[in-house]
Amino acid sequence: MGAPMVPNLDDRVAGPFWQAANEQRLVVQRCDACGHLRWPPLSGCPDCLDRSATWVDVAGTGRIWSFAVYHRALHPAFGADVPYVIAVIELDEGPLMTARYTGPAPLVNDQVEVFFESLVEGVTIPRFRPRSD
Amino acid sequence: MSIRGKVAVVGVGHTKQGELPGMAVEELAVDAIRLALDDAGLALDDVDGLIACKSVQGLGNDVAVGGLLGINPRYSQSLDYGTCNFSLHLAVQAIVTGMADVIVMCYGANARSAKADFTGPVNFQVDLASASGLVHIAGHAALALQRHKSLYGTTDEQFGSIAVAQREWAQMNPAAIFQDPLPMDAYLAQPYLVEPLRRADVTMISDGGVALVVTSAERAADLRHTPAYVVGMAEQSGVRGEHTHEYLTRPWLRDAASAIWQSTGLTPADVDVLYVQDPTAVWTLQMLEYYGFCGIGEAGPFLAERNTAPGGTLPTNTHGGQLSESYAWGWMHLVEAVRQLRGAAGPRQVADAEIAMYCSSQAFSKAACSILSNREDA
User: Fold this and answer.
1) ipTM given for this complex
2) Are residues A49 and A70 in the same domain?
3) Which pLDDT tens digit goes with each residue over B55-72?
4) Is residue A67 domain-shared with residue A95, that is, in the same domain?
């Protein structure tokens, strides 16, 4: 068992994502110039190169684009977690987001929703589970 | 400007591949260079170009290799995490533009003995994906494979045919590190590593040095071995990275494919032996489809028909590849292609092999492909 892999909440680019997660909100960047929704975080828009963006809430719902089941911990930080599922979620708003999935064995195209878990003291991480409604 | 037939690989050399404790990557590279020059029948005095590439640990560039090699070639370059294909392309460009005449290109790795860490997040910063547990390239490859399975119904047995066929090839290669039999039932009995990938679908890590000698066709004609002429080459980047839609499936590989088929006028049916750099077998699955050896989504049935295995229509990674022969970042793939074109591959020689193709990639950021032939006019 190793120390957990913890993001930097003060990161110049991705920090606001983690601060929003601490408030149980899932956010992505929206380019102020062209409106492109981008994930993962980037300091400029890859479509129009504008540097200004606003973090906007997304619904936290989407479908599984793909998934993989870690049967062995390939990093000591996840030794206590195996087996666990990593899923690429196609958010309803468009971006693909890679995160942990918790629940019964998934299938591609399954509908999922976000929920939040404490990773370590002061850091909350979004995860996905089968959509409840 | 066509590069067709203007440049050839005339020498190949490599150290033992495996565990070589106590060796620096530069020492391994230089040992391989000396063997490659011997193979070509050339001497260090003939060399006026050096192309090195950084090893996993960030060492092994031309400035580090140069001292041990003891020469000041007029042309000297390094590639950052370059696979062999990218080095070859640089060599061809330098030779056709007159910047060098005889180039040695080299690679050395001691990742196994140095116990290099491959488990961290691929981009080395903690983001949502890595904090969630997406670590090691096997995870990304597993996601790409699961998508393929879901879209096209690809089965474990079909996909497993890649590792099984390469092990069959490796059993005819005395240099291969993994030679134990791997029949399909044994493959399927292996536990998953990152489902749907098993251990046999992921590269080993080994130490070793590899080098090739590249020169002009004119000079190649006077040397001792049948030259392996470079017929065509292409590259395509995907450096937009995760902001490329569905980047895990590496859709830009198709652009490297179109470029090489268009510039050479050749088709997949012309290829006698195929090499795919294979840190995971998923790369082979993707290359077979994007380069047009089978249709998109059809790699599963194509593999199950044993096309890539000994006796098949498309002998692939006939040395065993990174899954069975050695790690070597795909450098041994090009060595094997040259041996096949020389007719010097021993018991695994593919009869009448005239056209070899090598498709490689640098994970999710770059693709390169080359076609070589023992016929200057191919």
Assistant:
1) 0.97
2) no
3) 877 688 999 999 999 999
4) yes
